[in-house]
Amino acid sequence: MFGLRKFNAPVLKPAGPFIAGGLTVFYLVAKLQGAMIDSEEYRNDPRNPALAAGKKAH
Known about the structure:
This protein is mainly alpha-helical. The chain has a domain at 16-41. The chain contains two helices and no strands. The radius of gyration is 21 Å and the shape is rod-shaped. The chain crosses the membrane at residues 12-30. Keywords: Membrane, Transmembrane, Transmembrane helix.
């Protein structure tokens, strides 16, 4: 009754492009956040998390 069926529904194959797109967006957003933290405008801002982590202010 339960367990593997004769005709399994494909899950990963149709979801593959969405998984790849999600990983790409996650990577690009993380890279953009890192670039914004190191930008000249927010480099010495006290709300900058890089200052709390111990990076030196420029």
